[in-house]
Amino acid sequence: MKRRNFLQILTLTAPSLLTGCGHLGKLCAHCFAPSTSSTHDQPLDFAETQSLKSSEEKALPKNVKLDQQSRSHYFDRDFPDDIYARGAELEILQRLARKIGYIQSYVGHGHFNILGWDEMIRFAAYAPGLSPFSTEEKAYLEGLFYAEARRYGFMGEKIFKELSHGVSKGHAYKVPYSGHYLKKGASLELYEKLRSDVGDQLVLTSGLRALAKQFHLFLEKARETGGNLSRASRSLAPPGYSFHGRGDFDIGMIGLGLENFSDRFADTEVYQKLIELGYVDIRYTEGNLLGVRFEPWHIKVES
What CATH number should be reported for the domain whose range is 3-49+65-299? Predict the structure, then answer.
């Protein structure tokens, strides 16, 4: 089936999925960028899965306590009690990361942000070059979703309780030229106020995320860490636990690129101005007890 015909069919069967993007029907950097192994060809929030440290910097210092603050501070290091995917489990994890990544490239990075579980399964069944999710693959994803994240060391709250839960398309607003959506209401209003008061150097780097996106980011991080699920959870909320599903969003500074998802963002003029204006309410603070890295770019919208 040709890609254009496939999109036309989906427009008829799932109109809520393929709306809100003015670029539909032609290639664009935000919606239909090709998938490659280069981080620079991925949407900017894909940088959350990439390590900016050298292997020498990753060694865990001796005598570090195995507590949540240490895990937050040394988020990109391996701890002795970390949980890993090994052998056949690692193989299926890697296969799923590639498969879901292909779906992202096929439907477009923008639309993929708000793609739910059922839609992701449907795309795999019909997209050319892909096979439907196997029973084994679906079972692995379901197990990952329903597993207690505390097992990996992630102590945050679960946002989506069931696989069927997701982002309401009617409450999602496509932010022009960003490739991202924001939740209408408090999230969109806060972002527009930040842009107005801080200036156009401030950019939206990630907005609403449904389950397909969080699965992809988490699997990619686990793959990048050699199957270390605990280390992945220190950088990215496991599927179902991301507050991006409720309305939180990420911001950055134009020109900073991938380092918008690093501590360096806290040294930028944009961040300092946010502090001065009293706007910053960070979800994952420095030295937090959730076992999650410091995220100065992550704007907390709702408690």
Answer: 3.30.1380.10
